[in-house]
Amino acid sequence: MEKPTQPTLDRAALERAMRAHGEEWYSLTTERCPHLFANTPVFIPSAQMYQMQQVVDAVERVVQVDGWMRDSSLPPSLSNLKERRGTSGVFFGYDFHLNEDGAHLIEINSNAGGAFLNMLLLDSQQDVELPGKTTAAGNLEQVFLEMFRNEWLLARGNIPLHSIAIVDQQPEGQYLYPEFILAKRMFEDAGITACIADPSALNARNGGLFLSEQKIDLLYNRLTDFSLQQHPILQRAYLDDSVVLTPDPIHYTRYADKHNLARLTDIDQLRALGVSETDIAVLQTGIPHTREVDGTNIEQWWQERKQWFFKPNNGYGSKGAYRGEKLTRRVFDEIMRGDYVAQRIAAPGELAVHTNDAGTIALKFDVRCYVYTGKIQLVAARLYQGQTTNFRTPGGGFAPVRVLG
Known about the structure:
By secondary structure, the protein is α+β, with helices and mostly antiparallel strands. It contains 13 helices and 19 strands.
């Protein structure tokens, strides 16, 4: 794998693209997120790109088989929706670590952030000659817009889509708030009324969900309350089908519940579900072995902890996640009592990046595939230092991915 040692992105072109969204947006983004975009692309071999696609395809087939959605998968308030179909869920994020042993799926997210920012980044670099091939669909803005229109079509048929609300807890305080603004503008440019809202600003009446006097047709859900337990108004609107919500609790449960990583690497369970041996082989190779932590065999877990990465089942954004070798006994004991899964460590990729302040530094990276209905729309990398992606590293941040060979 090539390891660029010099910044090869056109930073001037990126700055022009950012300023094109207005000085207010540019200032907000650069002040809040100074390390949002990396200095270099990430180059990956075509064999790893092929493997990522194979893993995505296999997962998509498995999560649709009869019996995948278990009775215990959903909280009681949503249990009657176990087999609810309808929308497909926007922006699934399949996150991979790439190393000399191949591509390794470490997580699936049901409301993956960054797609609109990466679209801006790719658009800004169109005139830059780089090795390899891009890893994004053509005309991404149209692809993203049609994805939301298709969600509406699946739920409501040919009724016109008039309004979309991008919803998150205290959205203006979210690190990726600048992305919400990009999404809002995309919807508005397409003639759809759009707003950004905290759930507390929404109210239910007359069989619908409203923001002030504006009836909301579709909610683009960026909340990390995946079952909506903390937001009863939204949960009731979802249960009553008075608003189209995407992604929704079913999407999270079907794909992104961390317990699914253990099920996807359990050969016996997969065979019992009738999964093909070909897909089982792909999953065994492409997902690090994952186990549920059930509070038993505690001393064995302690002895083997350096082989594992511990993740809370309902965690997000790496919160509460620990690399085993970094654990104190106190935190380890808390994990043993909590709702965790443990995944065998698959090292992230590394490359050398030049920065103006620190010279050449080694950065880790992961690769995210943005997926809708099983199709990869966009592949992007995140460069960082430390245990997890953090957007705090000079020279790090989102980076375009180029496929070599």
